[in-house]
Specification:
3 strands, mitochondrion outer membrane, three-stranded antiparallel β-sheet, mitochondrion, mainly alpha, transmembrane helix, 13 helices, disordered C terminus, 61% helix
C-alpha cells in the first residue's frame, strides 16, 4: 500500500503500448476524467492520513508491539487508527477535507494529458516491437519516454496550484486553522500573500521525481524485457506485460523523497509569517511608547499600557489562525528552498517519513525495552 500510494500519476503501462495512452474519442476522455475523479475520491482518506504523517503530526501515542524477532518495539498508529482519530475529531466528512481542490487538480491533469496527446498523437511515433534490434528498440523507448515525460510535466504544471491548495486545506487539521476554507478564497489569499509563485511552491521536486520515475521505470522495464526474459519461454508475453508495473512500484520507493519534499514545501511558512510577526512586534512596541511619552518609566506609568498590550495579545492570538501550524516549528523549520528541506530531512533520517502507513515503527531502538 505504501508503495502504491507513492506512485506518480503517470501511467504504468509499457511505453506506447497502454490503452490509456491512446488518443481516443471525446467519450473515452470523459470516461478517463470520471475514473480519475472516482479514484481520487476513493483514495483521498489514504492521502490525507499520509500527508499528516509527512508533516510529522502524531496526535496518538505509540503502542508496544513485537517485531519478527519477538523483541518489543514501539509502533506508531497505522492508517486505520489514525483515520478513526480524524473521524472522532471532525466526523466522517473530515476524512475528505481538501477533496474539492484535489478533484479539480485530477481533472485538470487528465484533460491536459488528453490535450497534449491530441497535439502530439502517438500514431506519429514508432512503437517498440520484438522484431527490432537492440539499438532500434532503445531509440524507440527513449522517444516514447520523452513524449510521456512531456505530457507528465505539462499536466503537473497545470494542476499543481490546485494540489497546493488541497495540501494546505488538509494540514489545517493540525492547528485547526480556517485560512483555506474554499477553492476560490484560497486562490485569492495565496495570490495576495505570496503572489503567483505561491501556487508553484514544491513544483520542482515533484517534476524531478516524475521525470526520474518515468526514465528509470521505462528503461529498467525495457532492459529486463530485452535481456532477462527469454522469447522461448511460453509466458514471456505475460511477464513483459507486468514488468513495467512491478518496476513502477520499486522505483516509486526510490523517488519518494521528492514527493515528500514537494508536499512539505507546499505547506511550509505560508504567507511570510516571520516578516509579518516582526512588523507586528515593532508596532506593539512603538504604539504604547508614543502614547505614553519618552519617560524612562513609561512601562509602568502609562495607564493605557496594559489595555494596549492586552489588545495586542488578542490580535496576536487571532493572527496565529492565519498561519498553518504544520508548516512552522516545531513541526519543521522555515525552509529557504527545497534543497534546504531535503538536507534537513536527510540529516534527521526522515526522507522516507510517511512512505509506510501500516507498520510504522517509532524512532526508538527496540533495545530500550526489557526482554521477557
Amino acid at each position: 500500500m505504501a508503495a502504491m500510494a507513492a506512485l506518480p500519476p503517470g501511467p504504468l503501462s509499457p511505453p506506447g503500448g497502454g490503452a490509456a495512452d491512446a488518443a481516443g474519442p471525446e467519450g473515452a476522455e470523459g470516461l478517463f476524467v470520471l475514473l480519475g475523479a472516482g479514484l481520487a475520491a476513493a483514495s483521498h482518506p489514504l492521502l490525507y492520513v499520509k500527508l499528516l504523517v509527512q508533516v510529522g503530526h502524531e496526535p496518538l501515542p505509540p503502542t508496544i508491539g513485537r517485531n519478527v524477532l519477538g523483541r518489543k518495539v514501539l509502533y506508531l498508529p497505522g492508517f486505520f487508527t489514525y483515520a478513526r482519530h480524524i473521524v472522532e475529531v471532525d466526523g466522517k466528512r473530515g476524512l475528505f477535507r481538501g477533496l474539492a481542490p484535489r478533484l479539480i487538480s485530477s481533472t485538470l491533469s487528465t484533460i491536459t494529458r488528453g490535450s497534449v496527446k491530441k497535439a502530439f498523437p502517438l500514431e506519429d511515433m514508432e512503437h517498440v516491437s520484438n522484431r527490432d534490434d537492440v539499438k532500434t528498440s532503445l531509440r524507440k523507448v527513449v522517444r516514447e519516454t520523452s513524449h510521456e515525460m512531456m505530457m507528465q510535466c505539462v499536466s503537473r504544471v497545470v494542476s499543481h496550484p490546485l494540489h497546493v491548495i488541497s495540501m494546505r486545506c488538509m494540514v489545517q487539521f493540525v492547528g485547526r486553522e480556517v485560512k483555506y476554507s474554499g477553492v476560490f478564497s484560497a486562490i485569492g489569499r495565496i495570490f495576495k500573500e505570496e503572489g503567483i509563485l505561491g501556487f508553484f511552491v514544491g513544483l520542482v521536486p515533484h517534476i524531478l521525481g516524475d521525470v526520474i520515475f518515468l526514465w528509470c521505470c521505462n528503461l529498467l522495464a525495457h532492459f529486463i524485457n530485452t535481456y532477462a526474459v527469454d522469447d522461448n519461454f511460453s509466458q514471456a508475453s505475460v511477464i513483459r506485460s507486468y514488468t513495467k508495473f512491478v518496476m513502477g512500484i520499486a522505483v516509486s520507493m526510490l523517488t519518494y523523497p521528492f514527493l515528500l519534499v514537494g508536499d512539505l514545501m507546499a505547506v511550509n511558512n505560508c504567507g511570510s509569517l516571520l516578516s509579518e510577526w516582526a512588523a507586528n512586534d515593532r508596532k506593539a512596541f512603538l504604539q504604547p511608547r508614543k502614547l505614553c511619552g519618552t519617560s524612562k518609566s513609561w512601562l509602568v506609568s502609562c495607564p493605557r499600557l496594559l489595555i494596549i498590550l492586552n489588545q495586542r495579545a488578542q490580535t496576536r492570538a487571532a493572527e496565529k489562525l492565519r498561519w498553518l501550524r504544520a508548516g512552522l516549528p516545531p513541526y519543521a523549520p522555515v525552509f529557504a528552498s527545497w534543497i534546504h528541506c531535503w538536507r534537513y530531512l536527510s540529516a534527521q533520517g526522515q526522507l522516507f517519513r510517511g512512505s509506510s502507513l501500516l507498520f510504522r515503527r517509532a524512532p526508538i531502538p527496540a533495545a530500550s525495552f526489557p526482554m521477557d
